[in-house]
């Protein structure tokens, strides 16, 4: 049986769903060892639950498309979170219709505005102002944090989003390193650090490793297990 607080929370969500969703997302952010904010996977799915989606589906802007919102696939939850944070929750319909889901992230840097984006990104962002494009670009990095899987050679990122260079992270990547300790500086401007990975982003293996890379991290050079 739901508690009184849970019932009250459901009622409040029905009254102001987009506003309260924005609040709940903001309150769940973590800060990594570089001072960058990210939204852990567990928090993302906890906030965007069936109660939240049902409340959103009752909004006037979704009239006639209620089932699309209530049954939005898990593959769109990051897109929905980004749109809510930037104040364009209703645009999730365009993303669903164009099948621009979480796997399509990141949005390319919109330096030339909407006209410079590839289709279908240009289609789903039609009518957006330049500051809204940049808001989406900014918020996306907090929800597309890479996960790591342990292999015989050490941790391996299974979802690197840098399409220009798969062997390195995009310079805006937020890494889920919640603790970082400098062990040694190298002559080639790299540093050897011991880092602790947020548990949401460990698919297998230990959550503490030695990390050799450039901080702020752009290139993931290699890992070593802790001795």
The averaged pLDDT comes out at 80
Shape: globular
Oligomeric state of this protein: single chain
Number of continuous helical runs: 9
* SSE pattern: HHEEHHHHHHHEEEEEEE
Main sheet attributes: strand count, strand direction, barrel closure: 4 strands, antiparallel
Across the major sheet, the strand order is 5-6-8-9
Number of domains: 2
Radius of gyration: 19 Å
First CA to last CA: what distance?
A: 49 Å
Tell me the β content: 15-25%
Given helix and strand content, the structural type is alpha+beta
What low-confidence regions span 5 or more consecutive residues with pLDDT below 50?
1-8, 214-227
Please outline the helices and strands.
Blueprint: H1 4-15, H2 17-27, E1 30-31, E2 37-38, H3 41-47, H4 50-57, H5 66-70, H6 77-85, H7 92-98, H8 121-124, H9 130-140, E3 148-151, E4 154-157, E5 177-185, E6 191-197, E7 202-204, E8 208-213, E9 220-225
Parallel strand pairs: 3-7
Antiparallel strand pairs: 1-2, 3-4, 5-6, 6-8, 8-9
Helix pairs in contact: 1-2, 1-4
General description of the model:
- The protein has 227 residues and is an alpha+beta fold.
- Helices cover 33% and strands 19% of the residues.
- The chain has two domains: 4-140, no CATH class; 148-225, no CATH class.
- It has nine helices and nine strands.
- α1 (4-15) packs across α2.
- It is globular and about 60 Å long.
- Residues 1-8 and 214-227 have low confidence and may be disordered.
